[in-house]
Amino acid sequence: MLKKKKTEKKKEVYALGQHISMSADKARRVIDQIRGRSYEETLMILELMPYRACYPIFKLVYSAAANASYNMASNEANLVISKAEVNKGTTIKKFKPRARGRSYPIKKPTCHITIVMKDISLDDKYVEIDSLKKTRWKKKHTAAYRDMYSSGGIWDKK
């Protein structure tokens, strides 16, 4: 007896950047800031951060969102970065000629960056965030103006 398979939509897409010429530690510093955030919030963070690692990561996040809209037909407002990781790549080694016939090694590290995005509209456990926000009431500050010379403190005594 044959059973019909249920077709389930893929919930995750990814973008992979390999052999990016920067240290894995420097890229990891930026990746830690965007992990778990929404797509639109991530783009704003990456545009405003002053690190050189932001541009290749920005391109990868943009590419992962394009993959999600093309492959899953999902809206960009529903995308969340579910997993982001940085791995060490190969080290490019060169020799620079120096004085008196010596050579000096130059080592340029590379890294591999993986960005995985999830569509939260396809996931059942996520709830609408806007409806859960509590309204915050503003306190009226009624602090009286205090003059330090007429307050009757130490300086008033003669």
Automatic annotation (TrEMBL):
List where in the cell it is found: Plastid, Chloroplast
Write down a Pfam family by its short name.
Ribosomal_L22
Instruction: List the Gene Ontology MF annotations in alphabetical order.
Output: rRNA binding; structural constituent of ribosome
Task: Identify the gene encoding this protein.
Answer: rpl22
Annotated keywords: Chloroplast, Plastid, Ribonucleoprotein, Ribosomal protein, RNA-binding, rRNA-binding
Question: What's this protein's function?
Answer: This protein binds specifically to 23S rRNA.
Superkingdom per UniProt? Eukaryota
Give the family, as the similarity comment puts it.
Belongs to the universal ribosomal protein uL22 family.
InterPro entries linked to this entry? Ribosomal_uL22, Ribosomal_uL22_bac/chlpt-type, Ribosomal_uL22_bac/org-type, Ribosomal_uL22_CS, Ribosomal_uL22_sf
Subunit and interaction comment? Part of the 50S ribosomal subunit.
Q: What is this protein called?
A: Large ribosomal subunit protein uL22c
Q: Which GO terms describe its cellular component?
A: chloroplast; large ribosomal subunit
Q: Name one GO biological process term.
A: translation
Grouped into one coarse class, the protein's main location is plastid
